[in-house]
Amino acid sequence: MTADLEITRLRESGGKGFEKVFAFLRERLLAGSLRPGDRLIPERDLAAQLGVSRPILREALRALTVLGVVEIRDRVGTIVRRPDLSVLNDFFTFAFAQQSEVIDDVMQARIAIECQAVRLAAERATVSDFERLQQALARIVETIDDADTGGVADFEFHRAVVMAGKSETLIVLHDSMSGILMRSHRGRRELLQAFDTMKTYLIEDHRRIFDAIVGRDPEHAEKVMREHFAIGDDFRRRAAIGESGSRSAPSQHHKSETP
Q1: DSSP letter, residue 216
Q2: Which of 44, 116, 182, 208 is the most exposed place for a label (fewest CB within 10 A)?
Q3: 124 touches 166 (CB < 8 A)
Q4: Which of 252, 247, 139, 233 is closest to 187 using CA atoms?
Q5: pLDDT (tens digit, 0 to 9) for every residue of the chain, 259 residues total?
Q6: pTM (2 decimals)?
Q7: Which among 53, 219, 240 is positioned nearest to 122, based on CA atoms?
């Protein structure tokens, strides 16, 4: 074994080897020289090309199968797949499960995604999108007294808004946070026990979002969506400091109803 080979192997940690394999696939997928359905060259040749050992290459490829990037088939080889983007949801859920301090930051990302999505929805939504949103709105009304099914109904309405925006990137980002967002929607429904006026707010506010999309007014749609989030935050703040009762929603809600 030559000194150069010794040095190469000493430098080749698992992490470095993984990076080489991931970078190889990433760059070729971006360049279009590899596409879903293509078969990678044999392991021996690929390992030599990348300068990694075959065990490291196999470990990296196995990791990529978990992400859905490749599929290893007996007697066939390694096939490039279209990644299963649903794994991002699991990643976000596990990553943030024990980090309550970052949940608010995730919610800020949600606001950014949905406010842009609702603008796009006001421009791009089809009749099918209107029907899906109307069904989701009806479900919100039907489930207003149930935190579990109501939380799901709220989530489905907001997801329908994002879907209506027709932006694949925004859809992927929103879906990747769905596990966390579902908990947020359920938590908001639980506030109904402390604020009975919130039932009217939830129904009317979602209807206003729907009307803004149907009205093809991106500026107004974003304004309504931002107010929707702000009012929800105000209810949570009031619950946190121990307020309860039948006080009306913040004046911001009433201002938004003026022309």
Answers
A1: T
A2: 44
A3: yes
A4: 233
A5: 433 433 344 344 456 788 889 899 889 988 989 999 999 999 999 999 999 999 999 999 998 888 788 999 988 899 999 876 666 667 767 766 666 666 778 889 999 999 999 999 999 999 999 999 999 999 999 999 898 999 999 999 999 999 999 999 999 889 888 888 888 888 888 877 777 778 888 899 999 999 999 999 999 999 999 999 988 888 777 777 777 654 445 544 444 433 3
A6: 0.73
A7: 219
